[in-house]
């Protein structure tokens, strides 16, 4: 059981950006430069260890950012903290790699990022602001924003992300905790395949099976994509269509998970669930466990910890 005593917590607000064509070119250029820096830093680490047995850290590489800007003037067009965040991402990837090695898991050595596989830049502390109609980012300028709900608390970070040809910004804010009223009620949750979940109160939650519902359209779109010539504009269009279908399924699933989890924590002081090894079950069999994975059970079980429970009481 985990008790959260903090008076503040972090909350993310996501908004749609509407950049002009010139701003979109600038954003794409920044993604290209950050991807190049990531790959170059990864190559340096690999070569240093293979040729000299030396370990290079992210902080070692950050010391040379000033020299990189002097040698490659195009990097002067990227905010300094954005470049630092690129190297911090690589540092985080290596820490996760060594953690998996130590735990005896499949290591998964950090990979080079190909074109289209580096889709976000982060302003970790400063260099950004937001108003009712525009969002300002250093080295980019003011971009139109669709502020469909007000921000809360103190701005901490801003992350610009490209998703299916569209641009979004996620603001992480530090907000004051607002506990829900106590209900003096407790509930246990058992997830399954026939029903999405069953509570100890006898409530059966229908399984919406979003992925299965979209399989017909996905099958057609995937076949269309497979027939398109690599590198052609028609293949790019077909690829975007497939990505949008997968995005729709992911959004439907996330919306369902949050609504179901929010209902549980608003009605109960304690929510308990079984400790499932969803990934391990899916690797051992391709029947019901695979269906459980498709329905995003692990994502659903993480929702209560992201939402605000009355006393933060969660028990696996």
Computed CA radius of gyration, to the nearest angstrom = 23 Å
What series of H and E elements makes up the topology?
Answer: EHHHHEEEEEEEEEHHEHHHE
Number of strands: 12
Terminal CA distance reads: 8 Å
Average per-residue pLDDT, rounded, comes to 86
Number of helices: 9
Largest sheet: 7 strands, antiparallel
Shape: globular
Which range best describes the helical content: under 10%, 10-25%, 25-40%, 40-55%, 55-70% or over 70%? Answer: 40-55%
- The secondary-structure class comes to alpha+beta
Give the strand order of the largest sheet, numbering strands 1, 2, ... along the chain: 2-6-7-1-5-4-3
Uncertain runs are 282-286, 308-316
Residues in β-strands, percent: 15-25%
What are its keywords?
alpha+beta; seven-stranded antiparallel β-sheet; single chain; 12 strands
Give an overview in words:
By secondary structure, the chain is of the alpha+beta class. The protein has helices spanning 21-52, 58-62, 65-71, 80-102, 210-227, 233-267, 278-284, 288-294, 297-306; strands at 8-18, 120-123, 128-130, 134-137, 141-146, 154-163, 166-176, 186-191, 197-199, 204-205, 270-273, 314-315. The strands form 2 sheets. A 7-stranded antiparallel sheet has the order 2-6-7-1-5-4-3. Strands 10-9-8-11-12 form a 5-stranded mixed sheet, covered by helices on one side.
């Amino acid at each position: 059981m985990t008790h959260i005593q903090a008076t503040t917590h972090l909350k993310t607000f996501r908004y749609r950006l509407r950049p002009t064509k010139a701003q979109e070119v600038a954003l794409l250029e920044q993604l290209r430069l950050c991807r190049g820096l990531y790959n170059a830093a990864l190559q340096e680490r690999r070569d240093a260890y293979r040729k000299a047995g030396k370990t290079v850290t992210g902080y070692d590489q950050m010391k040379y950012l000033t020299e990189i800007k002097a040698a490659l003037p195009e990097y002067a067009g990227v905010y300094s903290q954005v470049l630092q965040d690129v190297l911090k991402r690589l540092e985080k990837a290596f820490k996760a790699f060594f953690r998996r090695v130590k735990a005896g898991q499949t290591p998964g050595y950090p990979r080079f990022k190909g074109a289209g596989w580096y889709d976000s830049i982060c302003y970790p502390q400063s260099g950004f602001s937001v108003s009712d109609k525009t969002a300002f980012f250093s080295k980019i300028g003011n971009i139109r924003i669709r502020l469909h709900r007000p921000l809360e608390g103190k701005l901490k970070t801003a992350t610009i992300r490209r998703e299916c040809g569209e641009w979004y910004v996620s603001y992480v804010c530090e907000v004051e905790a607002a506990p829900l009223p106590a209900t003096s009620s407790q509930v246990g949750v058992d997830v399954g395949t026939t029903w999405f979940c069953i509570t100890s109160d006898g409530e059966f939650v229908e399984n919406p099976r979003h992925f299965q519902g979209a399989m017909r359209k996905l099958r057609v779109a995937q076949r269309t994509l497979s027939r398109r010539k690599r590198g052609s504009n028609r293949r790019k269009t077909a690829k975007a269509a497939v990505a949008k279908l997968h995005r729709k399924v992911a959004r439907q699933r996330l919306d369902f998970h949050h609504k179901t989890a929010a209902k549980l924590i608003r009605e109960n002081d304690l929510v308990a669930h079984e400790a499932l090894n969803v990934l391990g079950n899916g690797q051992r069999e391709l029947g019901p466990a695979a269906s459980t994975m498709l329905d995003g059970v692990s994502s659903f079980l993480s929702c209560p910890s992201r939402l605000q429970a009355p006393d933060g009481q969660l028990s696996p």
